[in-house]
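User: Structure tokens for both sequences below?

Assistant:
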Amino acid sequence: MNDTTNRQQKLTGKVALITGASRGIGRAIAQRFAAEGATVIVSGRSLEHSVILPGTLAETVALITQAGGHAIALAADLEKTAERDTLVARAAAAAGGLDILVNNAGFAEYCPVEPMPMAMFDRTLDHYLRIPFALSQAAIPLMRARGAGWILNLGSVTALAPLRPYSVFDSAGGVTVYAAIKSAVNRLTQGLAAELEADNIAVNSVAPSTAIRTPGADQHIPAQYPTEAVEYLAETALALCHLSARERTGLVAHSLHFPLACQLPVYSLDGRELLPPPILSDVVHPHIVPSGA
């Protein structure tokens, strides 16, 4: 259904840096934040030509601009230390400050522990823990100077312990290292939230309740697995990035559960259409805390 009401935009005047925004979840979050009035700085390796997977920053900027939003593209290969360590400063310089950091970038590689090359382990650790750590370190002083801020880390339902009897995915899917690092991301989120609450900087994590088909994730998702639309995660991300730290911080939230628990309306990525409430499938992990752990 179309939403014809004049809703107040939640992120007017805010600047958000979103990594991994050439495609998939990062692009969706950028679109949703822009629809709520934020200036979004979209970062990734693929500026005008795709490096590994389909999708570029130029395409993301075009989608946002066509919808009436404001986006700035900043190319950065976060595996390169110099580009990683200057990204936050470049983003703040390009947009006049920084209010929100979304640590989304990463390329998932699955392999059982025994045969996993150390180089793959190191890349997984870098993508999903070292890079969010480094970008958060750089962003904190900028947010503190503005009197408030929001850091959002992308989590994964795989961070929850596998259920018995073990599924084929858990026993043979090669997810163990990725899942362990995502579990560490959740603990980093909760600990950093405690450290920064007094500075009014909120730190939260969001993950799909099931899985979302994206160019990077599709190879790891069985064809028959019931996935979810990215709009529900983008709406949850927005909900975690506009209230003060005193109101909402330290949460590990999941994209279908959180809107239901908090009775959040979910909108299309351009903010113009109200979507149906999410429906929980029978594959959701029973230990997810609906309102956020």
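Moving on to the next sequence.
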Amino acid sequence: MDEELKENIMGALEQVIDPELGIDIVNIGLVYDVDLDEDGLCTVTMTLTTMGCPLAGILTDQVHAALADIPEVKDTHVDIVWNPPWTKERMSRYAKIALGIR
């Protein structure tokens, strides 16, 4: 996958807002990786802020919806992982400022 397409996918994922924090999943640092195979299957490797997060289904649905408009993406698979665990250090500077975290 070329860098431009990866940027498009990450940009689309910035439309997915974590309902608890009100900030997108990319800036919170929940998205670990995206990959697109030759058949157009986009695998989004991500985590959640807490294990057993009740929003997992909602976020997964929103990821599918966000990537539906990208022509190269024919199907989406969301792989939720717990390793490495999410920490606030994964957040972008923007997210930390928005949430008042130093």
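User: Anything stand out in the second?

Assistant: The longest strand covers residues 31-36.
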